[in-house]
Automatic annotation (TrEMBL):
Matching NCBIfam families: plant-AP
PANTHER family cross-referenced by the UniProt entry: ACID PHOSPHATASE (PTHR31284:SF24), ACID PHOSPHATASE-LIKE PROTEIN (PTHR31284)
Annotated signal sequence range: 1-27
Name of the protein this chain belongs to: Acid phosphatase 1
Keywords recorded for this protein, A-Z: Signal
Gene name of the encoded protein: APS1
GO MF terms, alphabetically ordered: acid phosphatase activity
Organism: Apostasia shenzhenica
């Protein structure tokens, strides 16, 4: 005899259990219909694992009907933030208008605000200043302090992969506004006595433009602005570059209290800060 029962044998067993188990439960205990329903649900669920056939298809179709395009795009956006969706070259075509709406919405403002509130809460509850200047906070620049939204507005909100040349030309104009909400957090962190390091994957040749743009947008008083050597364009991933720069800081004796960035690659890797704060950004993904 086979050690594994055949499919038809399984179906027969399931049919028998559907027929007899509920009857047995009623007879034995007179349970109320709610537990009878949950038992039936369990049986039906078990049946699905061996192929639910038409009934399962019908239920799944009904469930699908509840999913609107807005649901679909909101799930996509949330899963980008959760780092479940990775490595996307461009925003899915069907979601570009959703992303456009989100980036201009009060929801985006509120999401950024919540991240900054949590960062401030963390410092209030857990930070103590040593007074030796070695307590640091690391900020990424693009879409963390300075918004690239005006650039992406004219490039389908991430609906096509950004042209690096055009993006850098835009950055050189020093027109990026501050990310609303981050300005307050930045100055709050400064007032608490932390030393601020800015760590960006912008290239070194944009140093003057980056300094200039940050000042115009209302930022000042950072201790370092670390940019990528112009020769370092290829090879190392952003995550590797950023974590190697943080390693240097730790080796110099700095204590990394917190980091804020709009890309997972700015936040992952070692060494880590005590806390990291991800700023929402559904427009692009950098490895
Ligand atoms: C980027 O834009 C520049 C200027 O319009 C163009 O010359 C170049 O071919 C573009 N690069 C890509 C990869 O599309």
């Amino acid at each position: 005899m086979d050690s594994k029962p055949s499919t038809s044998r399984l179906l027969l067993l399931l049919t028998l259990s559907i027929t007899f188990i509920p009857a047995a439960v009623f007879a034995a205990s007179g349970e109320e219909s709610s537990s009878w329903r949950s038992l039936l649900r369990q049986v039906v669920r078990n049946r699905w694992t061996s192929g639910g056939g038409d009934h399962q298809d019908a239920v799944e179709k009904a469930m699908m009907k509840e999913i609107t395009l807005k649901n679909y795009c909101e799930s996509w956006r949330l899963n980008v933030e959760l780092h479940n969706v990775r490595g996307f070259g461009a925003v899915p075509a069907e979601c570009t208008s959703f992303v456009a709406k989100y980036m201009s919405s009060s929801q985006y403002k509120s999401d950024v605000q919540r991240a900054t509130d949590e960062a401030a809460l963390f410092l209030t509850s857990s930070f103590s200043l040593a007074g030796d200047g070695r307590d640091i906070w690391v900020f990424d620049v693009d879409d963390t302090l300075l918004s690239t939204l005006p650039f992406y507005k004219s490039h389908q909100f991430g609906g096509s992969a950004a042209n690096r040349t055009l993006l850098e030309e835009w950055m050189a104009k020093e027109k990026a506004p501050a990310v609303e909400g981050m300005l307050d957090l930045y100055h709050d962190i400064r007032r608490r006595g932390l030393t601020i390091f800015l760590l960006s994957s912008r290239p070194e040749h944009l140093r003057d433009a980056t300094d200039g743009n940050l000042i115009k947008a209302g930022f000042h008083g950072w201790a370092r602005l670390i940019l990528r050597c112009d020769e370092d364009g290829s090879g190392r991933s952003v995550q590797k570059y950023m974590s190697e720069e943080r390693k240097k800081m730790v080796n110099e004796g700095y204590r990394l209290w917190g980091m804020a960035g709009a890309q997972w690659s700015s936040l992952l890797g070692h060494p880590k800060a005590k806390r990291t704060f991800k700023v929402p950004n559904p427009m692009y993904y950098i490895e």
